[in-house]
Amino acid sequence: MRLILAIVILAILFASNPGLNDHQKAVKAKISQFIKKQTSSKSNDTKSEQAGKAILGLVGESMANEVVNEVIKRKDYFFFSLTTFEFNGNEKIIGIGIFGEVYISNGIEKELNNYVNKVKSNFDSPKGSMDN
Fold it and tell me: 38's torsion region: left (phi>0), alpha (psi -120 to 50) or beta?
């Protein structure tokens, strides 16, 4: 009986292992959520800040979709799969797919925040200024 149960569970895992498209959709959803949070207007934003955030949101979503299709890969282990981010020869596991669902680590949000902070600091630094 245990053997039959084990075989049934393995068959379910195998049949419900998410494909690459599922992994990419999950990452896109996580990035989209991050972009919406970053570009949401605050009550004290000026009209130009609100417009800039709206444009940044649209451009960010479009760019994210293109980038995800290139750098998000799936490692298949038959009964589950891993979501990986591959860039410049480096690979990082950012999620797992099992039972038909893909779970993306919150660590991706941390990495996105780090990237946004680097961009902001470069933009705000005097070296990046056009006044020089």
Answer: alpha
Q: Is the pLDDT of residue 36 over 50?
A: yes
Can you give the pTM of this predicted structure? 0.75
Which uninterrupted H or E stretch holds 118? Answer: helix 107-124
CA dist., res. 78 & res. 58, Å (int): 37
Q: Could you give the CA distance from residue 73 to residue 76 in angstroms, rounded to a whole number? A: 10
- Say which amino acid occupies 124: D
Domain spans in the chain, listed from the N-terminal domain onward: 2-128
Q: Which helix (H) or strand (E) holds 53?
A: helix 47-71
Question: Cα-flanking dihedrals φ and ψ of residue 100, to 5°?
Answer: 80, 5
Q: Which residues make Cβ contacts (< 8 Å) with residue 25, sequence separation at least 6?
A: 102
β-partners of residue 83 are: 74, 95
The set of long-range contacts for 74-77, using a CB threshold of 8 Å and a minimum separation of 24, is: 74/18, 74/19, 74/20, 74/23, 76/17
